[in-house]
Amino acid sequence: MKIGIIGGGFMGEAFIKGMLNSKKFNSNDIIVIEINEKRLNVLKNYKVQISNTIKDIKNAEIIILAVKPQKLNKVLQDMSFYSNKNSLLISIVAGIKIDEIIHTSLHKKIARVMPNLPASIGYGTSAYITSADIKPKDEKKIQNILDAFSKVVVKVKDENSLDAATAIHGSGPAYMFLILEYIIESAKKIGINEHDAFNLATSTMIGSAKYASASNSNLQELREAVTSSGGTTEAALKILNDGRLKKIIEDAIFQAYNRAIELGK
To answer: pTM of the predicted model, to two decimals?
Structure first.
């Protein structure tokens, strides 16, 4: 099964890493279209086929669109001349609707996917939606690819839900990184060196997430289990629960959601 990836940036590379590491895909069956010379040199390390022209996508049974939103329209126009119209398109381009992809590319079998950054280490989260022409065998191909680099794969009911998911898991790693930055900076101010602060903070975030995922208790119960009356955690939570943090997070997520909608207009 020939797979074409248009766009060899970070997420395009994440697809390559995940598929090859899963051992379900062969490097000889993957071709990457990329025009940036530096990225082409990086991609050579994966022993996949590389090209700088969309003409070479013509034999691909699955085409993964991993370009920036502002470049997609030109890519789809070019594909309408060179690609096999029976091939399956998987788009990870934020905000661009299925109907627009169908109209411009002349393809009918479309999946819109929103992965996230941890896909590059095989620990991604992916949400997706498909066009009406996707058959069960096509859906299996989509899931096989997403399973190669995702720990969680969710099929959402409509494109509005995909935009909403984008604001949670697509942008979510940046939220977590920012919180870690603030924790580490605070740790340094109370005398912990940067190396130890980084390890303490990242390990705590990873461990807490895994614990929550494995537990039968809800998040409030878990939080209360850590919080002793009159203790250090309670003192910190009094600050965090004054209402501002909740509002800030809500505002940030709504802003990301609204931006995802704007990108699709």
So the answer is: 0.86
First-to-last alpha carbon distance for the chain, in angstroms, is 34
Q: Class for domain 172-263, per CATH? A: mainly alpha
User: In terms of residues, how long is the chain?
Assistant: 265
Residue ranges of domains in the chain: 3-156, 172-263
Other Cβ atoms within 10 Å of 156 Cβ, number:
16
Sheet holding 150-155, edge to edge: 49-51, 30-33, 3-6, 62-65, 88-91, 110-114, 124-130, 150-155
Which helix (H) or strand (E) segment holds residue 155: the answer is: strand 150-155
The answer for 248, left when phi > 0, alpha when psi is -120 to 50, beta otherwise, is alpha
Instruction: Read off the pLDDT of each residue in 68-76 and give the average, rounded to a whole number.
Output: 85
Class of the domain covering 3-156: alpha beta
| Between 102 and 81, the higher pLDDT residue | 102
